[in-house]
Write a structure and sequence with these properties.
By secondary structure, the chain is mainly β. The protein has a domain at about 205-305: Lipocalin (Beta Barrel), CATH 2.40.128. The protein has strands at about 1-5, 5-10, 15-25, 25, 35-40, 45-50, 55-60, 65-70, 70-75, 80-85, 90-95, 95-100, 105-110, 115, 125-130, 130, 140-145, 145-150, 155-165, 165-170, 175-180, 180-185, 190-195, 200, 205-210, 215-220, 225-230, 245-250, 255-260, 265-270, 280-285, 290-295, 300.
Length: about 300
């Protein structure tokens, strides 16, 4: 997805515009469809387009998220519901908030509490949690009374709510905060003891961690493989997850990409960075100028000059 002269369109991996920039806004393709907005400036509506750029689900929604598990979250009149790939509602827009479907279940908020729907729109787990997140590897983090733990798809607590913060499971481990951040397994036992100020999810066998304001990376044994040396003056994370053997990190005020030994393979020259997906990463070399680079750091599409 790219922006050109205030409109949104789509390029292929070679940087060629394949769907002209004619939408008021759009999100990337997911499961073969992309949400896109058209209409009057103050009343633009969202629908879903196919890879030809044609609307296959009409632009009738106030907001529309990407498809996951064959289902997309849509907003109408300030409330949220879910539709299938034909545009048919599996759950009417009646919820205060929702989260995307994952592993067959989608979170919803009703009367201040969170629960989960199945793919038929039936309540699989009743709304009783203060906050939830999507399922990953069969478990989902849930919050109750300012503590978090993990439930299975039947709603059974499998890791007790003893933690201050919980992230999703990835590669068999989940980052949790208990004073400091560490990593637990699926029965709640710490495999990497809590001694980090912040911690990201595992990807490609590696996770970003923070110590005293600086970010580095650990392996599944908890061993530092890239020393904490990346810093963001704003206090926000200065290291992203690994994707396609590269991770975006912040050196002083610019972003670049390192390999798994911590060596820069694309110099820190961007004001904003991202993760690689199918050989491309979205970056910005100025606040108002963004584009896509390949794995050598060369622009395949550089947007407006």
């Amino acid at each position: 997805m790219v922006e050109l002269h205030g409109k949104y369109g789509f390029i292929n991996r070679e940087g060629k515009m394949v769907i002209p920039a004619r939408f008021d806004f759009a999100w990337d393709f997911s499961e073969g469809l992309a949400s896109a907005w058209v209409g009057l400036p103050a009343a633009s509506k969202a629908g879903f387009i196919d890879p030809r750029g044609e609307f296959v689900i009409p632009a009738l929604f106030d907001y529309a998220r990407a498809f996951h598990d064959g289902i997309a979250a849509v907003q109408v009149g300030g409330l949220w519901g879910f539709i299938d790939r034909t545009g048919h509602p599996i759950a009417d827009a009646a919820f205060e908030a929702v989260d995307d479907f994952a592993e067959g279940l989608g979170a919803f908020k009703f009367e201040g509490k969170w629960g989960y729907l199945d793919k038929k729109g039936a309540r699989a787990i009743s709304p009783k949690y203060d906050l939830t997140s999507g399922f990953s590897e069969g478990l989902a983090p849930v919050y109750l009374n300012q503590k978090c733990g993990f439930i299975d798809k039947k709603g059974t607590i499998v890791v007790s709510a003893n933690f201050e913060r919980c992230a999703a499971f990835a590669e068999g481990l989940a980052a949790v905060k208990s004073g400091f951040w560490g990593y637990i397994d699926k029965v709640g036992i710490f495999q990497i003891k809590p001694h980090f100020d912040s911690a990201g999810v595992f990807s490609e066998g590696i996770a970003a961690i923070e110590r005293r304001g600086r970010w580095g990376y650990v392996n599944r044994a908890g061993e530092l493989i890239v020393e904490p040396e990346f810093f963001s003056p704003s206090g926000s994370p200065a290291a992203y997850r690994f994707s396609e053997n590269k991770a975006c990190v912040k050196e002083r005020v610019k972003w670049g990409f390192i390999d798994k030994k911590g060596k820069f393979v694309i110099a820190a020259k961007f004001v904003r960075g991202g993760t690689f997906n199918h050989g491309l990463a979205r970056v910005c070399d100025a606040p108002n100028h963004c584009g896509y680079i390949n794995d050598k750091g060369d622009y395949v599409w550089s947007g407006e000059p």
